Amino acid sequence: MPTPLPSISCPTARPIYRLNLADAGGDGWQGASYRVYNASDYPNVAETPSSMVANGTLASGFSGVDWLCLADGCYEIDVGGGVGKGALQAGWSFEHP
Question: Could you count the other beta carbons within 10 Å of the beta carbon of residue 66?
Answer without folding.
Answer: 18
